[in-house]
Amino acid sequence: MRYLALAMSLDGTLSTAGRIEAALEQLRRSGRRALLVSARRLGELDAVCPHLELFDCVIAENGAVLHWPARRESMSLGGPIPESFVKALRRRVLAPVERGQVAVYTHASHACALVETVRELGLELQVVFCGESALVVPPGVNKGAGLQEALLSLGLSAHEVVSIGSEANDHSLLAVSECAVAMADALPALKRRAAFVTRAEADAGVVELIEQLVRDDLQTAGASIPHDSLLLGFDGAGHSVCIPAYGDNVFVVGPRGSAGASYAFGLLERLIQKKYQPCVIDPRGDFELREDMVKLGSRLRAPRISEVIAALAEPSVKLVVDLTGLLPREQPDFCAELFSELAVMRRRTGRPHWLVVNGAQYLWPSRGHVATGSSSKLRETLLLAEDPREVAQSILGQVDVAVAVGPAPARVLGQLAEALNETAPLLPLGAGQEDEALAWFITERQWPLWLRIPPGRAERLSRLHGHVEGDLGSGSFVFRGPEGTLHLRVNNLSSFCQAAEGVDEQVWLFHLWHGDFSRWIRNVLRDDELAREISSIERRYELPAAESRRRVRGAIAHRYALPA
Questions:
Q1: Is the C-alpha dihedral spanning 32, 38, 42, 45 positive or negative?
Q2: Can you tell me the mean pLDDT for 58-74?
């Protein structure tokens, strides 16, 4: 299943909540979790929604209070609003002022009194509106924050959650969820941020969403849902080439050494940046650890499957499983059992989101011992190998995208095609550069294309000083002007920004309109994202020279932290 939980903000629909009880039971039978998210106080919810046991977690008071019906436990995410605030507010307004465990409630028409009371007492509080009610909660407390805490307690992450809402206080809820849905009667501002809108209103819209979720995991609505993507590289025009962060298997293949490991490490960095949980399986013990990664196993001690599963139970753990404590012949059988346990965990929690196998040929060799069940279906798996012919065909057949790195990527893709018993792909002419890879989108039947490899963190840091203050030598930019008579050389980005202010308007516009700035940044500095941003400025021919100078300098200053 793609989506394992549904978070429902039912503030406007709880008066008819009985209509969704059957749908909730159907949702739970499908193996999914149900979470109720409300601005109401916990004590009120029993009266308007008598079957709270249908929910795995109830998030009340706009995210300030969490309650687990099965355990009959509750927890507050903030301290109660001071009594001095309640007394001062009651002196200002005639309408009822009510307290929750954390929040304070009154009618929305008294919003000005709420704000004035906060100002008068010098408190750091926030005012939230929900229908005809206004409530005051501690700073940082909202439905999104409450959902994140609830998911943590259930062993899930936001990547497995669908949320539905309709009120102004549902923005944070939809923002932290992988798939955001608005009811048909939702506020226009909420509809604009939602992936799609239900056809029905109120509780009927919730039932509609549940039925679609159970029926096909929202596949029929998939085209409208903006999914996270994983950047593979940049094409010749500097455009991003991506794959979905869910569903594909990637094979990075090439000679053992820095090229393949560096590319895979970059992919891993980008996954972690998007808060996906990885689990690296390392048969040869040479995977480069990030400082925030945890390693289990060593050459002196083999890892245990139970401790791998226990470590991954914490969503923030990024795990490397070192298999060098096992004999080579023991590794395939160990991993067959490990992958079986991980498959169970993924069905239950969706995590770990990605598996990374550093040396696929050791676990699934094309010849010799292959463990029973070790060729089961892979998903969201990043495989690394030196020679595709050494990997079992049952594994290669599950690869969606192959990325060849190293000195002879075309030959490597030819070997992969041979191992798959497929016609060799039509390879692009010419050899790639040192920082390029050849990507073959196998399942999409696209011919391979050259991709410029995004620099990893270490490479970005090493480049930073040279780009900003170093000497680029033959890669320096030269302002020549339309007549070619000027020869103003700038050795780095700092001197480029200074020169950009000094050259006359005719020289500036000549280079700008010819795309010289973005071409220099793309080809010499290898910064495709900045080049794309500068290129969009170069195509704005209507901009005055002063404005285009300001925008180009601003884009560079923002990306490289230069004084603007």
A1: negative
A2: 93
